[in-house]
Amino acid sequence: MPNRFSEQALRESQAFGVRQIPVLRPLGWLARGWRDLWRAPGVSLSHGLAMGLFGALLLWLAHDRFWLLAGAFTGFLIVAPILATGLYAISRELDRGGRPGWRTVREAWRPHDGRLIVFGILLAFAGTGWVLCSAAFVTGFVADPIQQPRDFLLKVVLADDAHLFSTWLMLGAVLAAPMFASTVVAIPALVDLPPSKIGVLGAVFTSWKVVLEHPAPLALWAALILALTLVGMGTALVGLIVIAPWLGHASWHAYLDLVIRRPD
Fold it and tell me: Domain of life here (predicted)?
């Protein structure tokens, strides 16, 4: 039997409709995100630099333990939506005709009601869980130690056991897919709307409703996010300085494009 929290979340989700969009609309989100990036380049690229430096810190901490690093980098994708909170606020201010700056970011991160803190903690647990699962899988099923990227390539990706890498990918997808569905518009909604309009669970329900009504466009959006993130990581993290804020701004426009707020 549903409890009062899930019933309230369902009512909150029902207050929002889903706008119908064509399959290729995510390309438009990227175009608008690119525009926002260069309308507020200083504060936007600072977010990208911070994420790139965080990636560099992971490399430094686990440079000789790639079995751990592989999970840490993929786990980073799970918590990235909450790290983009300031970018959503910047795009919102630009849409309002304002001139966003660091004050806009500080206001977005200030814990007015705790919803983003709760969501951030939940995503951190999910990301940590994947890192531990990934590390346990690689160390448990690979006889030799995985210390360098070359070891991961030879002993996992190109292993004689053809199912090893595909199983690792499947495990990641089992966690990543529901995380993507839970966050694709949820965090922008929490940034945009007060707690009287939507809570954490209501935002998650709304996000799932969006994905279920638009599986093809959202699958394309997930693939674009993954591909661009891999490009950022594959350029020694330098590309993340531009790609991370670009995707953050684009995600705000995905939210605006997909969610219709019905009259109170």
Answer: Bacteria
